[in-house]
Amino acid sequence: MDLVAKLFTITSAQEGNQNLQQLTLNGERGRGPWVCQDCLADSILRQLFADPMEAHQCDVCGSEKTNVLTVERIASFIRKGLEDHFELDEGLYPGYELSLQAVVQQAIGCESGSICRAIADQLEDADADEDDFYFPGQTYFLAASPFDDEAHERWYVTGEWHQLAMELGHDRRFFNERARQFFESLINEALEARDEQRQDAPAVVTALPAGTSFYRARRAGGPTEAKKFAANPIEEMGAPPKERAANNRMSASGVPLLYVSAGADTAIAEIRPAIGDTVAVGRFVSTAPLQFFDFTALSRRLQHTRLSFFDPRHLEREQHRKLLQYLHDEIARPVGATDVEYVMTQALAELIRYDKPGAFDGISFRSVQHEGGVNFVLFGKQDHLLRAMRSPEWRPEFDVAIDSSDVTFRKIEGVAYRHTVAPRTD
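Request: output the structure for the sequence above.
Response:
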């Protein structure tokens, strides 16, 4: 092929591409109305890939945007999801039924009635039967909760927690991917939640300044042991060495964490002394700001961002959000200190500690021994852990300090118990 022919071929191809682009652009310009993703509250719709050939005017806010979707595309995307979350009214709720336009508006979070009506027009099927979901003129209601009452809801949403507890306790304890994904989902849902009093940070994050006091108690077997506590409070009142670290609510045997309380009364109650015992109480003072994953916040009503009807994990996330309402009770409930009974809380604490390195200095949770009391578990300095654990003399270090003057002794004069009538087992 000579040069002239090649140039002609190239020019023809370019002209053909330009003509095709112009035809495509002309077709795009006739596809409105357009809605920019900024005018949609639904998180999944806001993440849809939007790549028009040119900017278009949003028919909601009037701005020229490139992150725009047509009503046709929105209708196509939400069609199946609406059927998963709304039901046909059939006269069950006179005066409260929803039109398809209202359903669309509630689902996508768009303020424009005309846009929602245009999307509804795309969804309605003139050829559908009267019982079909998108029959013109159909009315709807938001699908009701499947639970009979709060007790039924609690039983259902805590079921996965108890199933995993059985699995971790009696079957696959290590390298359990299902458990890791479950804990990650719970933690992420918790970190997204806010409360009414504090919107600037996650509700489950509690930051305490340097100089905060914490308390830890130990039984003193006699005057000699009491003197040891006062003479060497760091070693005697602090976290045990790894060889003596017992199985605890948030840590397995051999993992030395520091368990402290917000008050002296709570610290004493946690070791459950008998009448007549002498108890040493050490006051630790934080030497740096500390940030805790605060399980006590779960007892409040958490405020979550709007969950998309079109999220493929909608049901799972909805159930995990409900589980968070009951999770603190599951974590704090009294159990025997066995490997099996503590395995779930230990696994959850370990994930909080290592999945987000440096994000948390510890965990706080409600005391089951002292009403109104709060306990803290300090993880320790991670850099010190990695550097020094190889040493036989290694002990964990924490951002708290204590000296002899911070150790006091209490004589237990009485113990109060509360009780309720337990159901018969015969």
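The mean pLDDT is 87.
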